[in-house]
Amino acid sequence: MIQQDTTLLTIEQSEGFPAPNIPADNPITEARSQLGRKLFYDKLLSSDQTISCASCHSQGDVFSDVNQFSTGVGGAQGGRQGMAIFNLAWHNGGFFWDGRATTLREQAVGPIENPLEMNETLANVVSKLNNTSDYPTMFEAAFGDNSITSDRIGLALENFMLTIVSNDSKYDQYLAGNVTLTQSEERGRRLFFGIGQNNMNGPGGGGPQGTVNCAQCHGGANFDSPQYFNIGLDGDGNI
């Protein structure tokens, strides 16, 4: 019998960030996050074993997809792009572009059964994982016994994704007072936050106060918003 590994992991975060939102029933542990990482990169989760979570959330592309529409099993084209999935420990709100999943664990298993993504069933995934030599042992270390369930798959994936963090950027260093922005970067910062725009000259500046204020929608420590907006890109131009 493998003893459950309850070693807790601490998420690295930049100075000034609020406390991360870690689910009380899914503390980040070494065993769970490692299991989640293995699942995240495993193509066994798809029906023909050609697609993994990482196929549409590539680490080399900031855990997102550079294509306009993500491609699933058999070349199926989805209707949306795979979103970037870093800093989810500070995300407030739903998941997917339309917020239809209320928890990260729910989001994590959704693509498995989507016919345009992994086109598999959770029952088949559980069966395939049970027939491997390593997954039962990893589930036992993560959860205390070797039972593999769809709920535990979601918990493990959630655990790993909560550890994907972007920190110590130049902007983080600027906020900490450790670096100075270039003239161009400072101008971009002022445009982004709508600071003194009436006094700006050149392309993109000089308009009425508030016309270039990205922070209205991209605010807070995570530069995001828990709200959903119709920005007129639904085909008929309606806002």
Overall 3D geometry? globular
Write the CATH homologous superfamily of the largest domain.
Cytochrome c-like domain
Subunit arrangement of the protein = single chain
CATH topology of the largest domain: Cytochrome Bc1 Complex, Chain D, domain 2
Briefly note the structural class of the backbone: mainly alpha
Mean pLDDT comes to: 87
CATH architecture of the largest domain: Orthogonal Bundle
Radius of gyration, CA atoms, in whole angstroms: 21 Å
Counting DSSP E segments of at least 2 residues, the number of strands comes to 0
Low-confidence stretches: 199-210
Whole-Å distance between the termini? Answer: 59 Å
Overview of the structural elements:
This protein is mainly alpha-helical and 239 residues long. It has 2 domains: 30-161, Cytochrome Bc1 Complex, Chain D, domain 2; 181-239, no CATH class. Helix content is 30%, strand content 0%. The chain has helices spanning 30-40, 53-56, 104-113, 122-130, 135-143, 150-161, 170-175, 183-193. Helix 1 (30-40) runs antiparallel to helix 5 (135-143) and helix 1 (30-40) packs across helix 6. The longest helix is centred in the middle third of the chain and has 12 residues, at 150-161. The radius of gyration is 21 Å and the shape is globular. Residues 199-210 have low confidence and may be disordered.
Sum this structure up briefly.
This protein is an all-alpha fold.
Overview features:
239 residues; mainly alpha; Cytochrome Bc1 Complex, Chain D, domain 2; 2 domains
List the helices and strands and how they pair.
Elements: H1 30-40, H2 53-56, H3 104-113, H4 122-130, H5 135-143, H6 150-161, H7 170-175, H8 183-193
Helix pairs in contact: 1-5, 1-6, 3-6
